Amino acid sequence: MTEASESMLTRIKRAALIRLLWLISTGIAMTVRFKVEGMEKLDKIAADGKGGLILPWHGVTILPIFYCRHRGFYAIASVSKDGQLQNGILQLRGFKTIRGSSARHGVRALLEATRRLKEGKVLAYTPDGPKGPPKKVQSGTVYMAMRSGCPVLPVGVACSPCKRLHSWDSHMVPMPFSRAAIAFGDPVYVSEDMDESAAAEMIENAINQAEDRANAILGV
């Protein structure tokens, strides 16, 4: 079903659900005590105007989306039902969204995202999404990094206490008044002549190291 063929009632229900999820997630995130390391690296990429890929794993996105809200960054949201909810929340957080996933409209989204990166935009993206396997960088991420030549900034996130959902990515939901750490690692670069598997492994290692650092900051 396309958005054009949806009933008005369906659209109203979805808009209400998006607003409810936004209110709940915002209310919780506002109580979280953040410790952030390496924020100057993100600020530099945003200021340089040469584009940048900001990469956290799929299972920890609630807190970095909240923390990096209203900076005009781009993000990719799938065209599935869950993706429609995610798209609405991202837009309420001030992100500009590109619609598509590996299952539907993936090539179109990939080409548009790469074009935006070449224009100097910053794209926040989960390289193991939308369906995993978890913590494995997919080929689309390597393609965008190679074609754009922009810096790839790994992001690690930790939170305590939190709840882990029974989903493919064990999605992390912070508890009210929890402690959280966001660690921005050193940027990495993928050259066009680099082996795709080696590039994916390099990005994976960088994100995992940033996540280890976030855990160390919290002492978990």
Short structural summary:
The protein is of the alpha/beta class and 220 residues long. It has 7 helices and 7 strands; from the N terminus they run H-E-H-E-H-E-H-E-H-E-H-E-E-H. It has a 7-stranded mixed sheet, sandwiched between helices.
Supply the key terms.
single chain; 220 residues; alpha/beta; 7 helices
How would you describe what is shown here?
This protein is of the alpha/beta class. It has one domain: Glycerol-3-phosphate (1)-acyltransferase (3-Layer(aba) Sandwich), CATH 3.40.1130.10. It has helices at residues 8-29, 39-48, 62-67, 81-92, 106-118, 139-148, 196-218, and strands spanning 33-37, 52-55, 74-77, 96-99, 122-124, 152-164, 172-184. Strands 1-7-6-2-5-3-4 form a 7-stranded mixed beta sheet, with helices on both faces. α1 (8-29) packs across α4 (81-92). It is globular, with a radius of gyration of 17 Å.
The helix tally amounts to 7
CATH C-level: Alpha Beta
Strand content: 15-25%
Please give the order of strands in the largest beta sheet.
1-7-6-2-5-3-4
Determine the CATH topology.
Glycerol-3-phosphate (1)-acyltransferase
What integer is the average pLDDT? Answer: 94
Give the CATH superfamily. Answer: Glycerol-3-phosphate (1)-acyltransferase
- Tally of domains: 1
Rounded to an integer in angstroms, the radius of gyration calculated over CA atoms is: 17 Å
Q: Shape, please? A: globular
Number of strands: 7
CATH A-level architecture = 3-Layer(aba) Sandwich
Helix percentage range: 40-55%
Order of helices and strands: HEHEHEHEHEHEEH
Question: Which structural class do you get from the secondary structure elements?
Answer: alpha/beta
What is the makeup of the main sheet?
7 strands, mixed
CA(first)-CA(last) distance: 44 Å
